[in-house]
Amino acid sequence: MQRATGKANAWLLCHLSRYRLLHQTNNHQQLLQRVEQLAVHPFWRLAPVRFTLYAVASILILFIVTTPMSTLPQALFVLLLWGMAMIIGQFKGNLANLLLILLSAIASTRYLWWRAINTLNWDNMINLTLGIGLLAAEIYIWLVLILAFIQIAWPLRRPSAPLPDDKTLWPAVDVFIPTYNEPMKIVRPTVLATMNMDWPEDKLNIYLLDDGRRQEFKTFAEEVGIHYMARPDNRHAKAGNLNYALERTQSELITIFDCDHIPTRSFLQTNVGWFLKDPKLALLQTPHLFYSPDPFERNLDNFRRTPNENELFYGVIQEGNDFWNAAFFCGSCALLRRGPLEEIGGVATETLTEDAHTALRLHREGYNSAYLNIPQAAGLAPESLSAYVGQRIRWARGMIQILRIDNPLFGKGLSLGQRLCYFTAMLYFLTGIPRLVFLTAPLAFLILHVYIIHAPAQMILLYVLPHLLHSNLTNARLQGKYRYSFWAEVYESVLAWYIARATIVALFAPHKGSFNVTAKGGLIEQQHFDWEIARPSLVLTGLNVIGLLFGIWRLIENPANETAIVMLNIGWTFYNLVILGVTLSVATETRQTRNSHRIPARLPALLQLEDGRVLEAETLDLSEGGVALHLDVPADGLLNQKIEISIGKTPTILRCSARIVRSHEHQIGLLFDPLTLEDEARLIECIYGRADAWKDWVTDRPRDRPLRAMLDVLRTGLTGFHRVSYVLLRRMVSVYTQGHKFLSWVYSLLPRTPNHLQSRVDPP
After folding, report:
1. 178 and 65: one domain?
2. The CATH number of the domain where 633 resides is what?
3. Quick one: 228 and 105 in the same domain?
């Protein structure tokens, strides 16, 4: 040990001298590289070094967090902390991330300590009660923040594991496609894509699991040559459907695809290698990517420009979970090893989130999980906001059910990291009540004149601003292009009322609630405002508008020494109104009339015209109904021509007939003629099945910039109020029109001189 420590110290001194030389020569890039090398050196893994650093850091952090400061020292401390964050932010790598996490944790913990010790008014019961309520919500947010930092501090970023060249060593795979009430148009592409997967034919068995027991599905399965399986009842919903198939199949590996999740050809070859590399691996999860916009993306018109809610989980959180061997099973686009799954009794049936519960049980038995962040399948997002909210209610209720029934903090088999990852995921779904508290907290002062934070306005700013700024800066750094600043509050505010009710019920009655299938593939014929789903947001908006009016009145009437605190609460209320404005904008459902979505794709194509000419082209986007192309020559005179199109050159992926239905300059749009089953399978491969189909789906998106994100949220919030004002104006006009018609009808009932007698009345 002494010899190893001596070598490490010599290495450290040598490199410190090099750092001084680099600093003198201003070689910034090499300095960054040396710092990274220093951070990962084995010296830090020595037990005496690690525990000494832990002890010193803990004492120092405790001192910083608990030391009281007056206004000027606190202001200087804020500037020092922010300056350190700005300097550290110039460095790349996980070491800089960890330091930013540390600074953010210090700022947030110091704020929370100050709130608990110095800002509660113990002399007034109303002030104290409301103050403790707000403090409890802030403690919840702080706990989620710290646990999330631990969860994603060091993402694993696992690569794909190669398969052996000898295909006889590849395992057999059963593919399960569970269905219930989904239409054939959604299920059909998924089945054809699974049949196209590159895997030995004798080792690939595809099962269409039909809980709807429909003859149409059975006929289709027989037509394409896959197994059809229907059970006599629907007990335990999707989990029961999977378990029924599990008992009647035998391959070593099981792959599960929701019926709208379409895999690429390379799905199995990309993912199976880890099962050969790790005999204890029981689960491998891949991302859920959605090629259609969810209600936020469609109604706000920011599809693929602003990350959706799922991208944070699949882009950041799951990689963090993987570091702790705690990657979750998400119900689809995943592989499981049959032996461990049978050992735990199959897919869990006690909760609504059977996928996460199944992963928890596998981890309790000592099996490993993996997450491979390579998109190899894509599906449909919920079309309407009501369907989206319903899906999240099910997730929230299910995760709280697990918390009550099989709490990950207790019981056998889990490491500390696994316990924290599972607990963080479940704790997140309790965000409903704290979010409602934050959306109404400033009204306590503005309307009731209650000081829920009993402190001067300048001290509130000096403590709360570091907490907010550092947490936003650090999250922007860690989450990158997978979640933009301030959008988390938007998602939470839309769901707050609904998941608050669901989670409260689940906490006290964990066995209540039934599984519901999220509707996919529907159409929205007309733009409309969803008054029912927006009702909580409308009520909260009305309360905050009233609070804002009270705030303006208090600026005029209250004494001058309260001006700062009034302005602070007005600012808070204005921010709440901006967030609520975005939620109202989301509730304005825009039209969705496409039966098939366009998928961007750049593929070479050849067009054979009726006159025998052959034109070279490149696809712009593809759908199951047609294709848009760019020609090297002008498209004059091509409209309505019947053509033969070949997509792909070496080899040709698809060749079929089509008709030109749109042309403009160098671009044309084609409508495919009815396709044979074989051509349909090739088209599905062109659109969804290429190995690189989703490779660049989010890579061209810029990283999070908090100021830009704040302006984007502000603009969207104002748009929401404009939309609601327009809808209300139309309703007022409609009410006026109907009222005018009603009054005219009433007037028509009044007694009057008959028309045939009016002419007999003598003029005056």
Report:
1. no
2. 2.40.10.220
3. no
d(CA 52, CA 58): 10
For residue 644, list its beta bridge partners.
608, 657
Identify the active-site residue in 211, 258, 294, 704.
Answer: 211
Catalytic residue (one of 210, 260, 294, 355): 355
**Other beta carbons within 10 Å of 728:** 11
Domain that holds residue 663: 599-689
**Residue 117 burial (CB count, 10 A):** 10
Q: How many CB atoms lie within 10 A of CB 566?
A: 22
Strand, helix or coil for residue 764:
coil
Calpha distance 741→671 (Å, rounded): 48
Q: Are residues 93 and 185 in the same domain?
A: no
Alpha carbon 336 to chain centroid distance? 24
In the annotation, is 355 catalytic?
yes
List CB contacts of 117: < 8 A, sequence separation 6 or more.
Answer: none
If DSSP codes are grouped into helix, strand and coil, which group holds residue 211? coil
Q: Judge contact between 14 and 7, C-beta under 8 A.
A: no
R_g (Cα) of the chain, nearest Å:
31
Q: pLDDT band for 17, please (50, 70, 90 cuts).
A: very low
* Whole-prediction pTM: 0.87
Beta-bridge mates of residue 629: 619, 668
97: nearest Cα among 306, 159, 105, 8: 105
Residues shown for the chain: 764
| 274 and 163 Cβ atoms separated by less than 8 Å | no
Closest CA to 86 of 457, 384, 450, 469: 469
Q: Distance between CA atoms of 729 and 349, rounded to whole angstroms?
A: 49
The predicted-structure confidence for 430-455, as pLDDT tens digits, reads as follows 999 999 999 999 999 999 999 999 99
